[in-house]
Write a structure and sequence with these properties.
Layout lengths: L3 H23 L4 H24 L8 H11 L5 H18 L3 H23 L5 H38 L2 H24 L5 H25 L22 E5 L9 E5 L4 E7 L9 E3 L6 E2 L8 E6 L4 E6 L8 E7 L29
Parallel strand pairs: 1-3, 2-8
Antiparallel strand pairs: 3-6, 4-5, 4-7, 7-8
Helix pairs in contact: 1-2, 4-5, 5-6, 6-7, 6-8
């Protein structure tokens, strides 16, 4: 029969072995920590064996009598099985990576604490019922909130996987149906207080298993595709404003003195007023009989101009500050009136490649 002290030493030895495996996997071959953990495992294993042989130094009671008393005081528990599950999850996470490794360590840690408290409570008194009550008095304030938190997180994750895997309309219907079932179940329990506990427990277990199963299926299926939807400030859908922007943040000059656009192409130029208190506007001169001018733009707002112009240089200003806010609009392309490039020997002119640059604030 393994004594209580020996169980603790063997538990420390097992954790040291698990930690040494994790160290070997993630330390890039660093041996100091590995040898330290293995030394702890060997030392605690020796102490555990000595505890079994010496019966924890308890010479006042025969081993058979001590074993019988321990068996009589033992309370049922599934900690060995849960501990094995935790070790298995830890090893799987160590091999596959990701969060499983930390989940396994958390399970092992919980098992160690629970098993330790139960082992102590079994030997606190000679009354088994009193020992069980003592354990509940110590652990229930921790177990109930912890299990409630785990349950809430599991329900949220599983239900979110289900909703994200369904189409938009389907997820809405499922959410309404589930909410209705929860409300109906709560109303039934409130109006029928004499319902058997086994029936309520069965319904809760059935709903929990269905929800977790649906969450697993939804996680495997993956999320549905979401269409991108971009909006400007104010809620209007953003129209194509192009990559050509002129901005002003003060009355002493535009944020850029020059803007380049391609020739003979319809281009949208966005004018941004970044100055909070003073309205501004943009005017492009020399494009035709009438200059292109935006409306007056308040601070923080934008306006656009549709421009299609031949190659050349034009001036843009703020009509309200013509002497301070002025810049050059360079329309790049082949201009027959100023083209100075040599012709090809066969008499044909080679087209020049045009580029467009964006000068942004």
């Amino acid at each position: 029969m393994i004594t209580t002290g020996a169980k603790w030493w063997f538990a420390v030895a097992g954790l040291s072995v698990v930690a040494s495996v994790a160290w070997l996997a993630f330390s890039d071959g660093e041996l100091t920590g590995l040898l330290t953990l293995l030394s702890v495992a060997v030392a605690t294993s020796i102490l555990g064996v000595l505890g079994v042989v010496l019966r924890d130094g308890d010479g006042d009671e025969e081993p058979a009598a001590a074993s019988a008393r321990a068996a009589a005081m033992a309370m049922p528990a599934g900690w060995p099985a849960l501990g094995g599950l935790g070790v298995g999850v830890t090893l799987v996470g160590l091999a596959a990576g990701g969060a499983l490794f930390y989940v396994g360590l958390a399970i092992v840690g919980v098992v160690v604490v629970e098993w330790m408290v139960q082992g102590w409570a079994e030997r606190a008194t000679d009354d088994r019922a009193e020992n069980a009550a003592l354990r509940k008095r110590i652990m229930y304030p921790l177990e109930i909130p912890g299990l409630a938190l785990i349950g809430i997180v599991a329900v949220l994750l599983a239900f979110s996987r289900v909703l994200l895997a369904l189409p938009k309309a389907g997820s809405t219907v499922v959410a309404i149906v589930v909410a209705t079932l929860i409300l109906a179940g709560a109303a039934l329990v409130a109006t029928r207080p004499r319902l058997s506990a086994s029936l309520i427990t069965g319904l809760l277990v059935l709903g929990g298993v269905g929800l977790l199963g649906g969450g697993i299926v939804g996680a495997v299926a993956g999320e549905r595709e979401f269409e991108p939807h971009e909006e400007e400030e104010g809620g209007a859908e953003e129209e194509g404003t192009g990559d050509f922007v002129i901005s002003v943040s003060g009355s002493d000059g535009f944020d850029q003195d020059e803007l380049r656009i391609p020739a003979d192409e319809a281009v949208t130029i966005t004018f941004e007023n970044l100055e909070d208190d003073i309205p501004h506007s943009l005017q492009i001169q020399g494009l035709g009989d009438e200059d292109l001018t935006t409306e007056e733009v308040a601070g923080g707002d934008t306006a656009t101009l549709e421009v299609e112009a031949p190659a050349g240089e034009y001036t843009f200003i703020d009509p309200g500050f013509p002497n301070d806010l002025e810049g050059t609009l360079v329309v790049e392309g082949e201009d027959p009136s100023t083209n100075e490039q040599p012709e090809n020997p066969d008499g044909g002119g080679e087209d020049t490649e045009t580029t467009s640059e964006v000068s942004t604030p």
